[in-house]
Amino acid sequence: MINRNRNPERMEADSTWTHQTIRVGAVSYLNSRPLVESLDTYQPEIELSLDVPSRLADQLAGGKLDVALIPSVESFVDSNYRIVSDACIATHGPVLSVKLYFRVPPGKVKTLALDEGSRTSAALAQIMLAERFGVHPDRIPLPLEQSTSDTSADAVLLIGDRAMHTPAESFHSVWDLGEEWVTWTGLPFVFAMWTTRSGLDLHGVEAVLQQARDLGLERINKIAIDGANALGLSQDVSLHYLTKNLYFKLGEAEREGLKLFRRLAAENNLIPQMNTLRSRRHSSTDSLARA
Ligand SMILES: C=C(O[C@@H]1C=C(C(=O)O)C=C[C@H]1O)C(=O)O
User: Fold this and answer.
1) Same structural domain for residues 120 and 170?
2) Which atom of ligand 1 approaches the CA of 27 most closely?
């Protein structure tokens, strides 16, 4: 986990410093760079840490973070959660970084390996297979350090930076889960939202998250170049990812998409499983596999 420590010189110079640190957790992938790039420009009290989405959800639930960019499906399962910003990670079509790789036709999938960093896309993959093909595969955890070649599952879910690269193996077919959802429902899909637990005083972080997103979008060219260099992508792909594949604003259409996702997650018994998963934080994907 990366911790960006506060700059003591800036803290001294800042007359609004209240000695109140807000612990903010964001996704460690390129997709959230525009949301966090300039966060501490606005508010030096923010202590930012980066991690994979599933761990952020566990850290928010366990009180280790005050605000986190958690998987949208996690925000459905705790009535104490509050969405604090219209900055989010969404898509209106192909998302590029959430892929389901098939070794057999979708209707024949019996085993499904799920990226341990994911909660939302893990639910989305199961919803798509159940609703469109009537299949309910056995779920197998795919550890973060493993990739498609480390599992013999019939279908493999990968998310984040590593899902943007094409694997060496040639698959029966590959779904971009953003594209599949948007084509199937006609609605955008929201992967992650800034979420807090009720009752916390965030000292204005809500507005800061929005301003940071707006400033991040103004600096998108630089973020795309940095991302391309860090991940070995072309600058065109990186810029297209950040400006066309991803969408960072929670508006009315995105809320409609969320509502439908929530209903389908409940109908497919994925939300109670998420509850079980939360109370067993250290064996989360085990409980998914058992459920
Ligand atoms: C688009 C993405 O969205 C992510 C997918 C998430 C999930 O599957 O739980 C959660 C947060 C987002 O970072 C991605 O990771 O590529």
Assistant:
1) yes
2) 13
